[in-house]
User: Fold this.
Amino acid sequence: MIQAGDDALNTTAKGGKNLLGISIIAALAGFIFGFDTVVISGANLPIRELWQTSPLFHGFFIMSMALWGTVVGAIFGGGPTEKYGRKNVLLWIGIFFTVSSIGSALAQDPYTFSFFRFMGGLGIGISSVAAPTYISEISTPQTRGRLGAMYQFNIVFGILIAFLSNYFLKGVDGNNDWRWMLGVMAVPSLIYTLLVFGIPESPRWLVALKNDDAGARKVLQILGIQNAEEEIDAIRLAAREESLKSKTSFSVPVITAFSGWLFYSILQSMVRHQFYFILCSRNIGKSRAGR
Assistant:
């Protein structure tokens, strides 16, 4: 009995480490989220001077295209997450981020640039749905809040690193330093994409949507869940209850639309203040230099 108890403790401890590592990998989507949101601030003025577009076109089309992609991704990201699985969507998010960063850095006109920025925005919006969902579904009730908070922390951490990255890359390649600022995001995006290959699928998705109890059982063992059968039964019961609620509720589309609008408003306000701070700092520097 003592040996069995020790084995159970070892399995639980190993599963806790696996759970932490898997959650960190999924939460890296938040880091890229924050990084991509802010890194564009370093390209704001150089792009405006390079392509000589009108203020309306520059603000509404070029600089805001990632925000429009974020709104679309946040509103419609739940569909592919449910249909194709959390892991597959997280993988495509990494691909979107990687292609977006490289394409934006190499763009030769505002239309190509905006296309790749929109792609990155889609990745941001979808990640805001898929990553927290995945983390909450693989975590235990005792660790769900703590592990879920990692995603939020990584967003803020990504914002900080983006500001530092822009600062250190300023002047690296003259008028093209903004390309390096945007292109450097391909490094964490590619690392994240490769790491996602090693994480398991959500056991809840496997049970509730694929009826793959065997696959879910393997994932639960990796996570250190001792009573896998009871967990599977609980997942199936919860999914059945949610299905009944969704059939009798008409508020889901309204809530989704409102959440997307609210998310966009907050993100737009945040980015607007960031750009305002950069413009103020630039004007202050000019005024001091003129004295």
The radius of gyration is 22 Å. The chain has 14 helices and no strands.
